[in-house]
């Protein structure tokens, strides 16, 4: 006989809170020099990260206290709104261009990134559709194909910005949900072949992506150009050793690592805290993975299961990509490290998503 557990998962909350605190502290350490140089304020990025964290924690708290199945009726509406925002951001004069991508809507520094919110909207929509149509996923024509059309339409709009990293995370997360829901392996094999071909085409269509691949293979072939980021990242990790150089003592954050508070914050963590700090951070993410998978397995309904799978999948796909880039295992992609990297939309979105995961954990079946 099973019964519902009414309390949230304490270990899950601990890991989320610890990573959030570490993130705010390390954003300050990594960005102080940049903040002083660009804004005459070493606390510029840290203060904004604290504001983003505050807003995100409010969103997370709301999600923790509203039973997740109440959001199911809004999944289609949320998807439509996110599609509208993805179209709106492409309109000249509306979308803001930063780093070569037209991915933001807002005024000045206060803006949102619609592609980030599309990731959660897609997870919620797929969870709802698959829970409502459990048998259709076995059919390619009436089940998988319509879902793929929606997924790749969103991916296409994100690529028009362009933002390959965020689009790839959304597609990969969607595939994880579809696989768990029971999509046929042979369908995935066909999709995998098409996906590889399409991915190669996307890389070949943009010279800067080809440069990233070649610099990944041999960063020293262009140490001051395309290989600069990964070389500086490895220069940060290497001297960190076992215990690190000490908090605030990073050398690479002084204008060597580009924007060290975002994509390469893990390199600063490893330089200042050493191998021990890197393992500690990865262990906290591993706790979220463990408790998230447990929550998915014990969720009281399939909607909760797919929702939990999608949230955990999104988080760990991003963690794997970011850490892989920082240590030189994969090419530079522009994916931030969840809960740790500086960023408003990404941090707020992740905390809201984790709030939903915590709520599902409070409703799991005890066995």
Question: How is the secondary structure organized here?
Answer:
Blueprint: E1 3-4, H1 10-39, H2 44-65, H3 75-88, E2 95-98, E3 101-107, E4 110-112, H4 114-132, H5 140-159, H6 164-181, H7 185-205, H8 207-217, H9 228-240, H10 265-298, H11 302-326, H12 344-361, E5 365-366
Antiparallel strand pairs: 1-5, 2-3, 3-4
Write a structural description.
The chain is built from twelve helices and five strands. The chain is mainly alpha-helical. Helix 1 runs antiparallel to helix 10. The radius of gyration is 20 Å and the shape is globular. The termini are close together.
Q: What's the short story on this structure?
A:
The chain is mostly helical.
Number of helices: 12
Radius of gyration: 20 Å
Number of E strands: 5
Largest beta-sheet characterization: 3 strands, antiparallel
Instruction: Please identify the structural class as seen in this structure.
Output: mainly alpha
Strand content: under 5%
Distance between the termini: 7 Å
Helix content: 55-70%
One letter per element, helices H and strands E, the order comes to: EHHHEEEHHHHHHHHHE
The strand line-up of the biggest sheet is: 2-3-4
Low-confidence stretches: 1-5
Shape: globular
Mean of residue pLDDT values: 87
Descriptive labels:
367 residues, mainly alpha, three-stranded antiparallel β-sheet, two-stranded antiparallel ribbon, 12 helices
